[in-house]
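agent: user wants the structure for Carbohydrate ABC transporter ATP-binding protein, CUT1 family from Rhodopseudomonas pseudopalustris. delegating to structure tool.
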Amino acid sequence: MANVVLRNVRKTYPGGFEAIKGVDFEVGDGQFCVLVGPSGCGKSTLLRMVAGLETITSGEIDIGGRVVNDVEPADRDIAMVFQNYALYPHMSVYNNMAYGLRNRGMAKPEIEARVQEAARILEIGAMLDRKPRQLSGGQRQRVAMGRAIVRQPKVFLFDEPLSNLDAKLRVAMRVEIRKLQRRLSTTAIYVTHDQLEAMTLADILVVMNAGQVEQIGSPLDVYAKPATTFVASFIGAPPMNLIPLDAEGVRARFGGAVTEAGVLGVRPEDLAISSEPPAPGGLTLDLAVEAIERVGPETFVYGTRSPGGDLAAISSKPGELPPDEIIIRIPGQEAPAIGERISVVALRHNLHLFSADGRRRIAV
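agent: tool returned. relaying tokens verbatim.
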């Protein structure tokens, strides 16, 4: 096992495109770290740099106390699980798992023991004689993980390993990966664009955007106290409601903090439909219901801001659409009718304030 430390890591491609813009973070020994962000944010590039499949332009990558900038991938003591499984189609499951060990000159009894143990852990012992084409997507992914497990590496690297699976199987495999990592106590770095996957897997969450780290922390901390408006809108489904503010219009309600603030945030579950005013310092919005989504035990209500309420002074920046749509998340199947006008309220401690550029969280 080992910790992984990135120190001011940068990647600039020929032509000047800067894909990674100075990333710093540490994954502790045995921790499960998830890199999450939209497509093109640099998360897979960063993972490939840790693996040694991409060179770094500057900075340091340290695995287990050793700087590995110039170390070949095979010598970094890592194992990687890819999105497309990367299995040899002409080899059996057993040989796919044993191939790397044979190349390293390991003795046959040791190879046999490692493959059988990995097969037992992953419950694929009955499939060792099959070829990849005879397996389902989930079974192929188990084989790919088995090939990584037999290496007994210091660090596991996962590059969107579940993106080719259907929704039900993704959930099952997500649970299996987390159970496996905890059982083996191996440091892991996992890349995904799925924020739900990230939240459920991570010990430490690294939210990336445009080649930079927006926030690092536990999933619950990132959700409860997003550092920027990007994190606030990316982490959470549905996303946080973000409303540009006219400081003069709300100064009395939020006090001195609003002089620095330009954006108010409130999560859909923190808004309640009520005709009663909230406690002092809370928020009231008047909405016209535009759409309803019933998703089992919860209902999402989409409303458009109406004149009135506490935030009559909401404004939009030049070139932006007015921030009229508000999402409310309520329990059960009961919901107002489409076209109905409603009032929603939020308590002050559930509100979030951000600087006008969205790059800084401000205490409410």
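agent: one observation worth passing along. The mean pLDDT is 88.
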